[in-house]
Amino acid sequence: MEHILEINKLRKMYPEFILDDIDWNVPKGYVMGLIGLNGAGKTTTIKLIMNLIKSDGGHVKVFGLDNIQNEKLIKNKIGYVGEEQYFYEHQSAAWTGEFVSHFYDKWDREKYLSLLEQFEIPPKKRIRKYSKGMKVKLSFAIALSHNPELILLDEPTSGLDPIIRREVIEFLKTFAEENDKTVILSSHITDDISRIADYITYMINGKIVMTESKDALLSNWKKVHFTPESLDKSVIDKLESVESHMFGSSGLTKNYPAIQDALIPGLASGDIKVESVGLDDILITLVKGD
Amino acid sequence: MLRLMKKFSLWYILYPGMLLVFGLPMFNYDRLSGPDPLSLSFATYLAPMIWLVLAAMWAHEQMESKANGYAFLRILPIEPAQIVKAKFALVFISVAIYVGGCCVYFAFVSTSPEYLIPSCAYVIVYGNICLVAAGFLYLGIFRFGFSRFGKYILIAWVILLISPIPIRIFILKPMGITDSEIMQLMRGPYWILGTITCLVGYYFLMKLAIQKLSNKHG
C-alpha cells in the first residue's frame, strides 16, 4: 500500500506535554480519522506535518519528500483547515482568493468561486462580518481550490452548530469520494469521523495507540452483555471494562472473532447479547487502559 | 516575493506621503533663509523624518499581528525566508527612495558641491541608522512576537526622533564640535565606510531574522 504520509519517531516537547516518538503512516486515497481527547497531541502532530512548529526529533515525509526541505512544494499540494481560521479579516473572500492564488501552482479560480457560491459566502463582504461557520466554509473553499492531493483538517468542525457541522462533513465526504483524495481529519467528535473515515487512528497522551481500518475496528470491537453463569470465566477475562449492573454484566472485546464461538450457546438462549460499539466507546476504553 | 511586498506595502506608501506633507514647508523655509539655497541645516531638518519608515513598520506589523497574518501566510506555500525578505526589502526600498529623493532634491537646489555632498551624506547616514534599527527591530519581532516586542519599535522611534537635540546640546556642544566640523566629517570617507558596514549589517540581520522565523515555526 502506498503511503502519502510517513512519520518516523516524531517528537515534540512542551513543558506540560510530550509528543512521544510517534510512528504513523497514512495510506494514499483514503480518509484517515485521528481521534483523541483534547490535549492528546492531534493538533501538535498536524502542525508538525505542516511545518508550523519545530519538532524536537524525528522525520515527516509527505508525498515521499521531507516536509522541511520541501515545504513549499508540499504545501502546494496540501489543503489545510485548522481549528482557528486566520484571514486578513478587513479584506473580502474575493480579495483573499486573488491573494492566495499567486502562491499555488494549480489554483482554480472558477472552482473557488463556485465553492463560495455553493457555501453561500458573499465574495465582496468583509471577512470580519462573517459568522464562524462562514469562516470555516471559506477555509474549506481555499483549501480545496488548488486541487490538493492531501487534505489536512484539524478539528475544523469544533465550535460549529450541528447543522453546519453536518453540512461540512457531508460536503467533505462527497468531495473525498468523488475526487479520490487523501484526507486526514482530526477530531474529538467521533460522530464526524465515523461518517467519513476509512481508517481510524487513536491518539492518547502524545502516543499513537492504534491504527485500524474502520470496518475492522467496528467488527472486532463489540460490547457483550451477559449473565455471570452464561459465560466461561476464561472468556470474561478477555473482556475489558467489565461492569456489573442489575441486569447482569457487560464488557468490551477488541477481538470479537476470537470469542464468537464461545458466545453461540448464550446467544441462542438469550443470556448473552452482543452490540456494536461506537468510536467513542473504544476511545474511552483505550483512555482507561492507558 | 513581489506579491508579498505588494501586500505589505500599504503603510509604507501612506507614511512617505505624510513625510512630504511635513517636509515640504521646511524645504521652502530653509531655502529662503539660508546663505546658499542648500545648507547643512536643511539636511538636518529632513534627515530625521526618515524615522517615519519605522512608524510605517510598526503600523504594518500591528496590522499583521491583529489579523494573525503570519499564521495565515504560514499555511500557504510560502517559505519563512520569503516573508522576511519581502519585509526587509520594503524597508530598504522605502529608505532608499527617501534618501534618493532628498539627494536629487538637494542637487536641484544647491549651487555648490561644498554643501551638496555633506548634505547628501548626512541623509544617507540617517538612512543607514534607520536600516540597522529596522533590522534589529524585525529580529526582535520574529524572536518575541509583535505583541511582546511591538512597543519597542515605538520606543526606538521616539528615541531616534528626539535624539539629535540632546546629542547636539549635551554631547557635541560641550565637546566643541560645530556644524562645520560635522560637515567636514561628511566630506571624508567615513560615511561611505559606514554605509557599506550598515548595508552588510542589514543583510546579516535579515539572515538572522530568517533563521529566527524559521526556528519559531518550522
Describe this structure in words.
The complex is a heterodimer of chains A (290) and B (218). Chain A is an alpha/beta fold and 290 residues long. The model of chain A has no long low-confidence stretch (mean pLDDT 87). The mean pLDDT of chain B is 78. The two termini of chain B are 19 Å apart. Chain B is built from eleven helices and no strands. At the A-B interface, α2 of A face α5 of B.
Proportion in β-strands of chain B:
under 5%
Rg of chain A (CA only)? 22 Å
Number of structural units classed as domains of chain B = 1
CA radius of gyration of chain B: 19 Å
Fraction of helical residues of chain B: over 70%
Kindly give the count of domains of chain A.
2
Total strands of chain B? 0
Number of helices of chain B: 11
Would you report the number of β strands of chain A?
A: 14
Derived structural class of chain A: alpha/beta
Describe the oligomeric state of these chains in a short phrase: heterodimer
Q: Specify the structural class of chain B.
A: mainly alpha
Major sheet of chain A: 6 strands, mixed
Question: What labels describe this entry?
Answer:
heterodimer, A: 290 residues, alpha/beta, Rossmann fold, six-stranded mixed sheet, four-stranded antiparallel sheet, 11 helices, 14 strands, 37% helix, 30% strand, B: 218 residues, mainly alpha
Detail the topology: elements first, then pairings:
The complex is a heterodimer of chains A (290) and B (218).
Chain A lengths: L2 E12 L2 E11 L3 E5 L6 H8 L7 E6 L2 E2 L4 H5 L2 E4 L11 H9 L7 H10 L13 H13 L5 E5 L7 H18 L2 E6 L2 H7 L2 E6 L2 E7 H7 L1 E5 L6 H4 L3 E6 L2 E6 L2 H14 L2 E5 L2 H11 L1
Parallel strand pairs in A: 3-8, 3-9, 6-7, 7-8
Antiparallel strand pairs in A: 1-2, 1-4, 4-5, 9-10, 11-13, 11-14, 12-13
Helix pairs in contact in A: 3-4, 4-5
Chain B lengths: L1 H7 L1 H24 L6 H7 L5 H15 L2 H6 L5 H30 L3 H32 L1 H17 L1 H9 L6 H9 L2 H27 L2
Helix pairs in contact in B: 1-6, 2-3, 2-4, 2-6, 3-7, 4-8, 6-7, 6-11, 7-8, 7-10, 7-11
